[in-house]
Amino acid sequence: MKNNEEILQFAINASQRAYCVYSEFPVGACALYESGNEYIGCNVENSSYGLSLCAERNAMSSAVAAGEKSKLIKIAIYSPKNALCFPCGACRQWIREFSGGYNTEIVLQDKNGEIKTYYIDEILPYPFEIL
Ligand code: THU
Known about the structure:
By secondary structure, the chain is an alpha+beta fold. The protein has helices at 4-15, 55-65, 89-99, 120-123, and strands at 28-33, 38-42, 72-78, 105-109, 115-119.
């Protein structure tokens, strides 16, 4: 099972492959599942700006496409432009979707290069869910 430093490094590497010609704001993500599998993603923009895809949702979509069925236990997110690059609201809801009741850990890097972790329950309280 990869540790926080390792998944953050995957997110850093993925950010270097971002397609962000409009915003020039690269983001990389690495989603780690209970199975031990991890999936990376970067943001992919479009000239029709609203169609742009976030790095986190790209990583979680790759997991679905690969047949991943276990819980999302951690997700590392990195942008060279933002220390503590928190996920947007839409990505928070997506993280909740794949948490499977687990309190998924959000792994970020601060301005000093230190790892800081947060939990989906604290950054998305009262999520939408179909009961
Ligand atoms: N972006 C992400 O990849 N993840 C987020 O959680 C927020 C924003 C991307 C979308 C867009 O390509 C760029 O960052 C600027 O908003």
